Amino acid sequence: MSIGLQLAIIAAISLAAAGLTYLVKGPPARSHLCDPATRKSDEICLSEITDPNGILWVDARSRGAWQKNGLPDSILWNLDPTEDMQAFEANNAEKIAAAQKVVIYCGDENCGTSRQVAERIRKLDLGPQVLVLNGGWRALKDAARVQD
Fold first, then answer.
1. What per-residue confidence (pLDDT) applies to 95?
2. Contact by Cβ (8 Å): 46, 139
3. Is the Cβ–Cβ distance between 32 and 139 less than 8 Å?
4. Domain range list for the chain
5. How many angstroms separate the CA atoms of 56 and 67, rounded?
6. What is the pLDDT of residues 26-52, one digit of tens each?
7. What's the pTM?
8. Rounded CA gap, 66 and 75, in Å?
9. Are 138 and 129 in contact (CB under 8 A)?
10. Rounded to an integer, what distance in angstroms lies between the CA atom of residue 109 and that of residue 39?
11. Which fold has domain 43-142?
């Protein structure tokens, strides 16, 4: 048997074993890790939130996603053009002013919507510290704070 044929057989067996493992075990678990030392200054890691009192959670995902599995007691504030931005401000200004911290999350760690929402809330200048959750909704899911 030639070396090329042996190599092809070994590669085929390895590929079949890897495929079978994927089918049985599923894809690898990819949990979100947040390092407070390397996060951006306007972000917060979920592990840094030791006292949930005084925190207002803001969901920057779509209305449907928020209604399906948003954090309890969170408010919706997204950038959907069909939503009324002035209504978001009017309906939530009192809640924001009463909070010690406002933490905004969106779909995943690469979602820029939460940063844009954070900037809009900061421009209201209502007092509380406004932060973006590093990892977004995925960090909440990995910590079992929300379900799919």
1. 92
2. yes
3. yes
4. 1-30, 43-142
5. 17
6. 877 666 678 888 888 899 999 898 888
7. 0.76
8. 9
9. no
10. 11
11. Oxidized Rhodanese; domain 1 (3.40.250)
